[in-house]
Amino acid sequence: TRALVLNGPNLGRLGSREPDVYGAASFDDLVTSVEKWCADLGLQGEVRQTDDESELVGWLHEAVDTRTHVVLNPAAFTHYSYAVRDAAAQVTSAGLVLVEVHLTNPYAREAFRHTSVVGAVATGTVAGFGFDSYRLALLAVAARV
Ligand code: DQA
Q1: pTM assigned to the model
Q2: Is 102 tagged catalytic?
Q3: C-alpha of residue 103 to centroid of ligand 1, in Å
Q4: What share of residues in the chain are helix, strand, coil (percent, to 5)?
Q5: Where, by residue number, is the active site (predicted)?
């Protein structure tokens, strides 16, 4: 079973980005953890990050075309990108699992983070558990397929 683990804008800056909010571990550390969890769960995982909305939309199209499940942290796109939402909708509409993940709990933060335009088209959402949000999301993918 294949899983694309897609990360949106500013997540490549983990480790240096607002460490009080996002912690001291780097994006490379996240990749290492996710790759290990995928191997443990028997998933063929691939982790990517982009700051570019168009690239993220293209990766979601690729997931549909290659029948690959998705763990998606849309980062700030979560809150306003109908393009990412419409691309995510194609993944779940194709019968693939798409889990929305967040490191932090957006509901405990600023009001603009309380809305996810992606949530309604995701299979489900895991938020607030740091890197473990990804581990739980991968567990959900493995349990569903
Ligand atoms: C985030 C939460 C978003 O509100 C924020 O824009 C991010 C990261 C998270 O993982 O907690 O960039 O998706």
Answers
A1: 0.97
A2: yes
A3: 7
A4: 50, 20, 30
A5: 22 (proton acceptor), 102 (proton donor)
The verdict on whether 80 is a catalytic residue reads no
Answer for the pair 42, 142: CB distance below 8 angstroms, yes or no: yes
Where do the DSSP E strands lie in the chain?
Answer: 2-7, 44-49, 69-73, 98-102, 124-127
DSSP designation for 11 = G
**23-50 pLDDT tens trace:** 999 999 999 999 999 999 999 999 999 9
Q: Is the CB of 92 under 6 A from ligand 1?
A: no
Single out the catalytic residue among 22, 61, 69, 82.
Answer: 22
CA-closest candidate to residue 6, choices 43, 52, 59:
59
Q: What is the complex's ipTM, to 2 decimals?
A: 0.99
Per residue in 78-98, pLDDT (tens digit) is 999 999 999 999 999 999 999
- Give the β-pairing of 124-127 and 69-73: unpaired
CATH code for position 137: 3.40.50.9100
Per the structure, how many domains does the chain have?
1
